[in-house]
Design goal:
This protein is of the alpha/beta class. The chain contains five helices and seven strands; from the N terminus they run αβββββαββααα. The longest helix has 26 residues, at 6-31. The model has no long low-confidence stretch (mean pLDDT 89).
Length: 178
């Protein structure tokens, strides 16, 4: 009855999680300028966006932030559960990375592999088994995890990917962003 509608509160909680992860990424870039980050990239025409695109020596990553201030997150090889309820975070992160890969490849003119990452901001994160194709990371481990990934992207290639990722036309429907 009092206060903002539930959907407004949900949006604000999600936005706060993205801000927290954005602060971690700012620390990453400050400590290693080979990394670049883009935030809240609108994709397609349905109002969807990519929370963060991170480009650096270890490759290209789409970060899907999940903020559950009092949530208990459990991760298995094929599922993520929040407070005992199955959620589609792995499927969504996989789809987001595949979509970004297609769009960046088209815009860059060379293959751009993208790794999907779910970044969890929660009171509890239990990883029973790591999923094979999507990383699930607690926000406090994000910078270290990115830093420990093997380097395989040349500085010139990272710069070229960043250049096309910065362009709104890369993500627009006229370039296949639907």
């Amino acid at each position: 009855m009092f206060g903002p509608p539930p959907e407004d509160r949900s949006w604000r909680v999600g936005a706060r999680g993205e801000q927290i992860v954005g602060q971690e990424l700012a620390r990453l870039v400050a400590s290693d300028p080979r990394w670049t980050c883009l935030h809240a990239i609108p994709v397609g025409v349905d109002g969807s966006d990519i929370d963060h695109v991170v480009i650096g020596p270890a490759g290209v990553f789409t970060l899907n932030t999940k903020h559950h201030p009092v949530g208990r997150i459990w991760v298995g090889a094929r599922t993520v559960m929040v407070n005992g309820t199955r959620v589609p975070y792995l499927r969504n992160a996989r789809h987001e990375a595949d979509r970004a890969s297609r769009l960046l490849t088209t815009a860059a003119g060379f293959p751009v592999d993208v790794q999907g990452v779910v970044v969890v901001v929660a009171s509890s994160l239990t990883i029973k088994e790591h999923p094979a194709d999507v990383a699930v990371i607690g926000r406090r481990q994000l910078r270290r995890w990115l830093g420990y990934q093997p380097e395989h992207l040349a500085p010139e290639t990272a710069a070229a990917v960043h250049d096309v990722a910065r362009r709104s036309t890369t993500w627009s429907p006229t370039r296949g962003g639907r």
